[in-house]
Amino acid sequence: MTNRNKTEVYIYGSKYTISGTESEEYILKLALHVDKKMRKFAEANNALSSGMISVLAAINIADDYFKTLDKLQNITKNQHIETELMEKEYKQKVEELTLQIQKFKSDAVTMEEATTSQTYELEVIKNEFENKEKKLKQQIELLKIESGYKDEAIANQLEELENEHNQNKDELVDQIKRLKDENTSKEKAMTELYQKMEQLKSEYKQMEELYQEEYTQLKDEYKKLEELMLK
């Protein structure tokens, strides 16, 4: 059973005993408020009776109450709207970040596939070069054996083959260098893509935490407002 407190108060010169579950300090505060309202109307018009003063004070207090209630309801409504807008903005931002992350993932996969393809192409070129070099060396050695360096025509052919070998070698070296440079550039681009992805994930997480914090704060404020309205 709830304990009820009895508090003696004075309102507009009269003594009253108020019984309630609220604290004595709170009841005295209420009585003082009513007393001030009644004295305000009494000072404004000395001809008013005590009953009339009480009615005017009650109407004035009721007016204050309903105006305060309207303000609280407006604040609550505004907070609902603000929460909905925040939630809509949050969802939109999440969708945008998700699309960006998906795009970066797709770009990274495409870049990785291109790098793998070029690596394979590089290996094929190296194998072709090695096979051609081996074949040319075999031809040179064969010509050396057959000619014994005596036949001028064979010696010229030998020189042409050596020149062709050197030219092909230089071209292949340049091509291999170019492919390696392209691979290095693409690997760097892939690294930047992954870094951007991590940055977007971090921003996504921070925004989610910020929204959750603000949303929790709004819920707490809304709960407090509801408690005030119930009083």
From TrEMBL:
<protein>
    <recommendedName>
        <fullName>Cell division protein ZapA</fullName>
    </recommendedName>
</protein>
<dbReference type="GO" id="GO:0005829">
    <property type="term" value="C:cytosol"/>
</dbReference>
<dbReference type="GO" id="GO:0032153">
    <property type="term" value="C:cell division site"/>
</dbReference>
<dbReference type="GO" id="GO:0030428">
    <property type="term" value="C:cell septum"/>
</dbReference>
<dbReference type="InterPro" id="IPR053712">
    <property type="entry name" value="Bac_CellDiv_Activator"/>
</dbReference>
<feature type="coiled-coil region">
    <location>
        <begin position="87"/>
        <end position="228"/>
    </location>
</feature>
<dbReference type="InterPro" id="IPR007838">
    <property type="entry name" value="Cell_div_ZapA-like"/>
</dbReference>
<keyword id="KW-0132">Cell division</keyword>
<dbReference type="GO" id="GO:0000921">
    <property type="term" value="P:septin ring assembly"/>
</dbReference>
<keyword id="KW-0963">Cytoplasm</keyword>
<dbReference type="GO" id="GO:0000917">
    <property type="term" value="P:division septum assembly"/>
</dbReference>
<comment type="subunit">
    <text>Homodimer. Interacts with FtsZ.</text>
</comment>
<keyword id="KW-0131">Cell cycle</keyword>
<dbReference type="Pfam" id="PF05164">
    <property type="entry name" value="ZapA"/>
</dbReference>
<keyword id="KW-0717">Septation</keyword>
<dbReference type="GO" id="GO:0043093">
    <property type="term" value="P:FtsZ-dependent cytokinesis"/>
</dbReference>
<keyword id="KW-0175">Coiled coil</keyword>
<dbReference type="InterPro" id="IPR036192">
    <property type="entry name" value="Cell_div_ZapA-like_sf"/>
</dbReference>
<comment type="function">
    <text>Activator of cell division through the inhibition of FtsZ GTPase activity, therefore promoting FtsZ assembly into bundles of protofilaments necessary for the formation of the division Z ring. It is recruited early at mid-cell but it is not essential for cell division.</text>
</comment>
